[in-house]
């Protein structure tokens, strides 16, 4: 069974690398950076776009506190705790990355907007695997899924 899992992961990684090599990067449409609020308050450009990211910080911090405060979420394994920690760190980091992007929306800054989201998305996938498929396999998938997500953002 262990050999089959290793083979499956190896095939998945090879397919991912081949797809990255043979497919061209998808260019970002410049109209994507045209947001509704272009006003400046207190010297902050696109103020409402920037300020709207603050709730992500609040939710991320509350989630982290509840993960570690008397096991509020009743997490049964270390893998679940690690997965949810990565998720809430990603959510909290969205506030900084997205605020930075909205200060000066462009392709270079968009990486910092998408990277924390990718961390949250990939960690929630590992949590689904932990809770629905197998705790051990899900825990082992956290780092590979995070790496695939980060590499895909860097490739983009």
What are its keywords?
6 helices, single chain, mainly alpha, transmembrane helix
Distance between the termini: 35 Å
Helix % is over 70%
Q: In DSSP terms, counting alpha (H) and pi (I) runs of 4 or more, how many helices?
A: 6
Low-pLDDT regions: none
Radius of gyration: 18 Å
> Strand-residue fraction?
under 5%
Category from helices, strands and their pairing: mainly alpha
- Major sheet: none
C-alpha geometry: flat
Name the quaternary structure: single chain
Q: Could you tell me the number of beta strands?
A: 0
Order of helices and strands: HHHHHH
**Arithmetic mean of pLDDT:** 84
Write structural notes for this entry.
Keywords: Hydrolase, Membrane, Transmembrane, Transmembrane helix. GO terms for molecular function: hydrolase activity, acting on carbon-nitrogen (but not peptide) bonds, in linear amides. The chain is flat. It has helices at 2-22, 47-51, 54-68, 78-103, 107-132, 135-155. Helix 3 packs antiparallel against helix 4 (78-103). The protein starts with a helix and ends with a helix. It is mainly alpha-helical and 156 residues long.
